[in-house]
Amino acid sequence: MKREIKTTNDGSKTLFINELNENYHSHHGALQEAEHVFIKNGLNLINHYEINILELGFGTGLNVLVTINEYLKTDKSHVINYFTLEKYPINESEINDLAYYDLFDNPEFKNIYQKIHLADWEKSTEIIKGFNLKKIQCDFFDLKNIDLPAINLVYYDCFGARVQPDLWEKPLFEMVSDKMAVNGLLTTYSSKGSVRRILQDLNFQVEKKQGPPGKREMINAVKL
Description:
There is one protein chain. The chain is α/β, with parallel strands linked by helices. The chain is built from six helices and eleven strands. The protein has helices at residues 30-40, 62-71, 92-98, 109-118, 170-178, 193-201, and strands spanning 3-7, 13-17, 22-23, 50-56, 79-86, 124-128, 131-137, 151-156, 180-188, 204-210, 217-223. It holds the Pfam family Methyltransf_30. This is tRNA (5-methylaminomethyl-2-thiouridine)(34)-methyltransferase MnmD.
């Protein structure tokens, strides 16, 4: 599918798929959406020495980058193992044009950004000390066949239900739940009532949170 670069309202870029009429991120702001949904209402709520994160899906790599940015603000006395699934990786030209490292003050971020995208698929790579990344090229529904440690935090960042409704139905959420530790947190930009009911059926405690700019609500769900 053909993709093009677009600039969102906070100055950060995203990819737009013409065929689906769908952005990879909110047009209100790619960076602020990632930081609000997955950092403020995700990573910052987890307090473990070793944090296993599962992301659906890798996309442009922005969620990895904002997670590393937040990790670098800590004393780095803990470890993050980040597992991310993606069926259709972006290409080198798109990686260069997105240039997400320009969004951060840290001069090391250009090198970090390149390491994220150059990391071999299917292999764990230490991007910086204490932060390990494993990119897995697969369909999300292959998740049940993937060997993972118990997941503490899920970034549920699939394309919207308008274009891929099957990604917001019970079978995939059930696979994700099976990979999660008790008290693990799932965070997503979605606030669909059907998603809340599915998660409750799967024994999650579901909470509606204030959404990122341009969206009234989002969901946090803790596995009981």
